[in-house]
Each structure stands twice: as structure tokens, then as C-alpha cells.
Amino acid sequence: MGKIVESYKMALESETSWWSGFTRTLRNEELEAFNALMDVYRVYASAAGNATQPILFEPMVMSMRLYQQMYLQKLQKELNALKQQPNLQP
Amino acid sequence: MLSNSNQTFSPDKVKGWILDAYPSNEGEIAVWIISESGERILLTDNFHPKIYVSAKQDVIESLIGRLYNNPDVANWSFAYKYAQPTDIQKSKVLELALKDCRRTQTLTNTILRMGDYMRFQVHNCDLKGDRAYFFSHDIFPLATVEVKTEKAGLQYTLLDSVSSTDYAIPPLRVMKLGIEIAKKNKIADFKDPIGTIQVSQDQKEIRIDSGEEAEKLCQLVKAVHELDPDILVTSGGDSYLFAYLAERASISNALSSFTLSRDSMIFAPKTPSGKTYFSYGRTFYRATPVRLFGRIHIDESNTFILSEAGLDGLIEVARICRVPLHTAARNSIGSSMSSLQFYQAIKDDVLIPRNKSIPEAFKSACELLIGDRGGFVYEPRVGTHDHVGEVDFSNMYPSLMANNNISAETVLCKCCPDSPLRIPELNYHICTKRVGIVPKTLRFVVDKRTYYKKMKKEASDPQLKELYDKRQIGLKWILVTCFGYLGYKNAKFGTVDGHIGVCAFGREALLKASRTAEEQGFEVIHGIVDSLWLKKPDAAIEEYENLCEAITKQSGVPINFEGRYKWIVFLPSKMHPRIGVLNRYYGVMEDGKIKVRGLEIRRRDTSRFVLDAQTEMINTLATANNSGELRRKIPDALEVVRKYRKKLLDGEVPVWDLIVTKLMSRKLERYRQHVSQVIAAEQLIKEGVEIHAGNSVKFLFTHSDNKRHERRVKAAQLIEKGVNPDTKKYLMLLYASAANLLSFEGYTTESIYDAVRGQKQRSLSGF
Q: Taking the model in full, what pTM does it have?
């Protein structure tokens, strides 16, 4: 497939190249965080592709939000588990 | 067995198998029958193939007068057929019987010219004579028949069926022919004389190496006539060997007696030529077939189906698609499948269009965005996993095509716009009033393959097991190709809208299956189009089987539990180490079977040295029972790397184990860079070898970073004694293959080097 429409994964890679001006200004630590953020949409590339949104940035942002939400839930679970431990009770 | 049993007279009645059929004299077809008693009998039949012309009624009647004196037309009449595959009712068309099947193209062009290429449409004009003959008599290669010779021609009584699964095949005599050329230079050419001719059949081996060249050729002809093979197998017969033999026969004035066919046709010298074509991202080259008459010539280097499914698979495909054996051996599977569809169309009174006539439906940009997509994929969870089960849809796309009636004439049909059967997401309607040509042919193949797979499982005799396996592999390739062929621009019954519809149905099936799996407590670790890798701690095998049953019931497509892995590794991307790569994994199943995808050992361009090393590493890791043990086995795998490194440095690796094979994906002059295969190809061309796009080039790395590119590699055919391989390059390849395998633990080529040498390296040049 992809006879006419570019595959979503390839389109997303092209989209990231639009951010080269932005990334050039970043410091190393920031660049590392930026790359980690970019990896997030690669994790959800299939789901984002299935959304068939003409504006690529929208599913990209949704992927990042979803990842962060998942991360928050994980942290919340870990926090709850820690709270259950008797020696950590205040 | 020696036999001189060729019969060139026509007995009144004979029972046996159809071996070969081909046009002989004008208006005649030669048919070779293997009789029950083992005789090879030549029969001749009159044959006048039919083509059809459709146009406006008044225009078509005016055509008759213009064709009245045409020398190619034997007779004409009117018939009622479905002129277009999409037609709801039959229309009146002109049926023309030709005097000779070889004149079809000439007559077609004449008619098209008469109508200024606009007024007349010619149908059924692409059928080759042999296939048209098979279709018109409802027979097929190696069918059991009873043939009566009557005044009107041959009368066949078919005692067999293409749907038969326990058909008998006559004992075929298979001969292997090989030639050694007494070459004067490194590369042999047509000027070099014949050295040795080797012929083998059953237990008999004949070596012809004495006498003048003409004498050798006569001895070959004598051996072929005495042993009288039905199938002659060569390696390079199409591309080189037969053209070379004909040339040598011509030089030795022996051409007039050089007959290898069963009938007395003289072997015609042909200049080797062929065509390059592109399929599924790969470039292929196919040499022009060299045909023998009354025998089947199979070139081992120019056949796909024989290499995949063996002779039994080839026979199955030839029978089911009604394609002569020598054509089925060389045809792409798509061409054989076309034949199957053409037969079905003729049976259904649908005319075969000359050109694909059904255009793609208009789509807005948004519809294209929705529709123009492939199968769905769940990105893999990178790393090691224990107790992951694999479930695969069986024949997913063909089953979806058959179940949902997807064919050119059924998707967006004219007759049922309110059909409840719809393509998901795009909402295109599909016909519910008639079954399409494509689903009809596929249902038959799917059912037959399912039966063979069942029989293979149940059979206790290993020979029978292999027979069923080969036959099901032959059919598998028809099913593998059918989806791609549906979207192929030249497929007569193809449909782009149907093609994208199949993907939509496929995505829906996979998403529903994964949802069902999750509802039953499984975690989806990975999914590709028609396969899912599922994990559930402590799940019993029955749970996987119950899940498969539920998904099969829900989707209508059977899904099978392939087994559970002791451990499986999904490897990360080299560019983005946090992200997994689709279809790059390896693991060991609970029954000990190792499954590897996307690694060097699966690639065609890996040298034997790297392949052996990576295989040994995988076998070492495969002894682990879980991912914890797997990690503890890594030092053992590194020990394998050390062993192979030492072998290479000590010069114990034979040069032939270091040969790399690369494909020429385009013409030599279209390469911009001097990549390895280009350098090797240039070396070969210099020596007079023809290299086409689609050919593979074998070479050895000799000095891969030399500034003079011609020194970087050496073509395999030009390797001389004492050549030194580029040890650094091969060590790099070895380390890279190990790094690929162990990348789930963060290993890179550099860290493999460190681990193997036991020290920290400074730069890669230190290899």
C-alpha cells in the first residue's frame, strides 16, 4: 500500500525534520529530552496512523500526551504502593 | 528404464495422462499422452481458438463484411456473453474462430485498426494456444483422460478433476543434463568447445568426454533418445546452456541432427535474452524460456515454484491453473493465477478484457488518507519476554477476499448500491447478488490447501507427508500472491478499490482479535498484519486455543495457535534504541523450535562465515529456558564470536565461505556509486559476462577501504589461488552480526569488539 499516500511513519519522520531549526538552538540536556519526546510518537506510530488525521502534528501531540498520562499512572501506582508500606507511613 | 516406445501414430483410443500440448502445424495442436502401459504417444487435434468482439450492435454487424475474406478467420457466429466483467446482463457479441492459434495477435490488431482503436473491443485474445486448448476441452496437464481419435478430432473423457486431492501421477522419467565447458579464459564463452557432457537419469549416469565435438553432441542426442526423459532438468538451460549447445552444434555442422525434443523438431539456436522486472521491492531477471517439444525442460535457475515446492508442488500448480508444466515452472505465480481466473471467467460466460477496464473509484484526499493504507501493526515491546504465545490468521487475505466477495466486478457493483456488505472505513458496497471470479477461484484454492495441510498432519507415512506438504506449499504461493495481484495494474480482474478494501478488512480483523485477547486477560506484545504475540502469566495452552476459537468465530477467518515461546527477544532499532523494529526478533518455542526473523541469517547477502557464526550463537543462546538464563548465556555467545575471529585470523576460513552475494537492483549504468556489487559486475563485464538488472553478483571483499575502488572486491568467478580476503572487513561483519543479536542488552559493534578482545578499543580502525 502507500501507492499514493506516503506511509504514516515516513511522513512523521519528515515532520521531525521541520524542527531542525528548533533543535539547533537546544542545549545537550534539552536535546536529549527532545529526542526522547520524539521517540514517543514512534512508539504510537501505528495508532497515530490509524487516526488518519491530515495534520500530522495532532496525533504526534496526542501520542506524547498519552505517553505522559501512562507515565503519570505508573508513578501514581508506584506512589500508592510505597504508601502502603508500613515503615514509610509518617 | 530404456524405452523406444514413442508412438507417432494415432491409436483409436488411449487412456493415460496428458504430458504436453503445443501448436504444431497450422490449425493443429500436438498432444503428448503417457499411456497406462507407459508408452509416450503423440496425438494431433484440429483446434480453432475463439476470440470475441464487442461494440454497438450496428457497428458490429458491419464488421462481419469486412472480415469475410480475412485469411485468419475460420468461421464466425454471434454469441451472448458478459462483455465486461461488471455487466449485469449478457449482450450480443461476435464470436470469431481462428484458423490458427498463432494468428490471434495479428487478427486482434487488424480488428482494432478497423475500429480506429475505439469502436471495437476484442476479448479472450491474450490466451495462449495451449491454454485455450486446455480450457476448450476442460482438460489440464497430467490429467487422467481417455482420448478417442475421431474424424472431427480428439474426444476427451476426463477421468480426473482439478479438485481431486489423491490423483495419480505417471512415473515420470527425469533426466539431469550438465555441461563442462573447456574454457580457455577464466570465464567461458560460446567460442570455447564442449569439455564434458554429463547425463543422469534414475541410477544411470553417462559421461560424454571423448571424441570430436560433433561426436559428443551426437552421443548426447543418442542418450536423450534412448533414455527418453519426460522432464529434462538443467541449470542455466534458458540463459546459456542450450544456446551454447546449439551454437556448438552449428559450428560442428551437427545442427541438422541435434534434436532433443520428442518430436523431430530441430533445435533452433536462440540468442540468450530475457527480461528484468520489479516485484515486491526486488528486481528480478528472467531468461527467455527454451522449449522442448514432447518433453518438459525445466531450468533450475529460472524457476521459482520448483525451488519452493518441488516437482509435486509444480504439478499441483500446473493442474489447478491449467498451465503447461514448462510454463508453470517459469511463470510468475501471478501469471499462473491469471490462468485460473481466465478459466473461471470462460466458465461463467464472462469475456476476458484485452486491457484492464475497471478504473479506480474517484477518491478525495481524505478518502485516500483513510483507504491507502496497509495492514495494522502493533509496535513490539522491545526486550526479552517469557511465555509469549503466537497466534496467526491462516490465509488471512485470501480468506477475507473469498468471504467478502472481493473482485473487480463486485466492489462498487452497479446492481446493489444498498448492499449491507460494506468495506470498513471507506463504506464501499460489495455485490450480494453474484459471487465474483476472484473469490470463486480463491475459495477453491483455500479449501484445497486447508485439506492438504490437514492430510499432512494426519499422514504417518513420511513420503505421503512430504507429498501433501509440497502440494500445499505450491498452493500457498498462489494465495500469497493473490492479494498483491488484485492491485496489479495489468491484472484483468484486479481492483484497486478491492485491494485497499482487503487491507481495511484485515485491519478490522486484527484489531478485533487483539481486543478479544485483551478481554481474556492477554497482553499484546506485538502484532503484524495477521499475527499476534500474546502474553498471559501462567496461561494454559487451552486458554490460547479457546481464544483462537473465539476469534475464528468472530472474524470468519481461522486463526491458529502456533505455539508458546520459552523466551522471545524483540530487537531495538539501531537508529532509535528505545523503539522496536517490526519483524526483527528471535526466540525458542517450548517444543525447541527456533524462530528467527530479520537477522543476518535470514538475509540473502550474508556470507557463509557470518551465517555459520550467527547460527552457532543463536544455538548457544537457544539452550536457555527463560530470559534470565538467556542473559547468563551471553558470555557463551561471545565465546563463539572469539572462536570465529580466531578461525578467520588463522586463515582457516575457506575463501568460498566469505563470498557475499548482492543483487543488481538496476542497470549497471544507473548506479551512481561504486558499491561492491557494481565493482564486481564491472570486473565480470570486462571478461565478457552479461549482467542484467535482477542478476545476483557474487564477490569477495579484498580491500574494502582501498582508494582504488576496483581493488575493493573480487568477483567470485575471477578469484585466483592465493587471493587474500579483507580480514578487517569480515571481522566487522562478524561483530555487527553479534551486536545485532545482542542489541537487546545494549551491545553495539564497538562493545562486541571490546568484549571479544577483553579491552577498550580506541577507534573502529583498530579492528
A: 0.87
